[in-house]
Design goal:
Helices cover 33% and strands 11% of the residues. The chain contains 11 helices and 12 strands. Helix 1 (7-19) packs parallel to helix 2. The protein starts with 6 loop residues before the first helix and ends in a 22-residue tail after the last helix.
């Protein structure tokens, strides 16, 4: 996004969502950058300013790297003013990604960020860290392969994320892929999965880390469930107003776990990327048991959660003439660029 998207294009994307009262979820520009004039926080400022101007809901995806503290303070101050704006993190010191990502270019990864490939880029399929030559070769031959990227600073920051009000937990899960990137069938054994363990373990990892760090259980549950449901419900999404809380009359989507023993087992070792958690004997979706005694059952009672389909769209396309008509006073003899690139501007709206 840092090189491929213009600021006005991003503003219009957020405006399109705002027309419907929908939130925008953004991986911000300059993510990971630590130096002026492209500090990571500037990318967050961009989408925050757009959301405030549009009075639109916003979630910043993965506010778990450099500058997160500044972003979180701004988001809190805006929530106190009534804006429906928040961020999420996933509870690992390593990220998932693909070799094709723009920031993996040597001039960025080594030059600007100061990382070494052989210390940060792990290939779950090869079960090893990749040196620069191996990584750049993979970037050309298999640019969409699932890889894992370590960020050393996250280890010291993670305990703070566990304690941030309104910050939610994301799994950032991806479709299960096996050896050579093939899409796994539904009945594949968990040992076949190759990728980031967050797909299998993010939620229970947050529970385990919260327990180990002395974070109140109800606070962790709010990060995992309530705050997501609250923010999404505040956009008008009725189904989310029925979730995130255990009450009579609410949706029967429940996870039963032992807070003293619940733990993630998925890790970065080959064959163990997708191991299921322990301490979660039952999961109930839409009133139907889908996990019993820790075993996933062959049932799919879940229903899509979405806004109702509208007969008429609210998208408002942008043209040069329309922009001037909306924002410039009508002067009959005014000349300039029209939508074709030359000629008189018609300022009628």
């Amino acid at each position: 996004m840092s090189r491929g998207l213009k600021t006005y294009e991003l503003f219009e994307a957020q405006r399109a969502a705002a027309h419907y009262g929908r939130l925008t979820s953004v991986h911000t520009r300059f993510h990971l950058s630590t130096k002026p004039p492209t500090e990571s926080q500037i990318g967050a400022d961009e989408v925050i300013a757009n959301a405030v101007a549009l009075k639109a809901p916003l979630i910043i995806a993965h506010d778990n790297d450099y500058g997160w503290w500044e972003n979180e303070e701004k988001l809190r101050l805006l929530r106190e003013q009534g804006f429906n704006i928040w961020a999420e993190y996933y509870p690992y010191d390593a990220a998932g990604g693909q070799p094709k990502a723009d920031f993996f270019r040597p001039e960025i990864w080594e030059g600007e960020y100061g990382y070494k490939y052989e210390e940060t880029i792990f290939d779950p399929q090869a079960n090893k860290f990749l040196n620069k030559e191996e990584f750049l070769s993979l970037r050309k031959s298999d640019p969409t392969r699932a890889i894992v990227t370590y960020f050393p600073a996250r280890k010291k920051w993670l305990p703070y994320w566990l304690r941030m009000p309104d910050m939610t937990v994301a799994s950032d899960a991806i479709a299960g892929r096996g050896e050579n990137g093939r899409l796994l069938p539904a009945n594949a054994h968990v040992s076949e999965y190759r990728g980031h363990p967050r797909t299998a373990g993010a939620s229970v990892r947050a529970l385990r880390l919260g327990r180990e760090q002395g974070v109140p259980l109800m606070f962790t549950l709010s990060q995992l469930s309530y705050w997501s449901a609250k923010h999404l419900g505040d956009t008008g999404l009725e189904a989310m107003k029925q979730r995130g809380r255990v009450q009579v009359g609410k949706a029967a989507d429940l996870t039963l776990f032992d807070p003293k023993t619940v733990a993630d087992n998925a890790n970065f070792r080959l064959g163990e990327n997708g191991l299921p958690p322990t301490g979660v004997p039952y999961v109930i979706i839409n009133g139907t048991v889908v996990v019993k005694d820790g075993k996933v059952l062959p049932v799919k009672p879940g229903q899509p959660i979405r806004f109702p389909v509208e007969a008429k769209g609210r998208f408002d396309p942008v043209t040069v003439n329309k922009w001037f008509g909306d924002h410039v006073i009508n002067v009959p003899d005014m000349h300039g660029m029209d939508d074709s690139g030359a000629g008189h501007i018609t300022t009628d709206k």
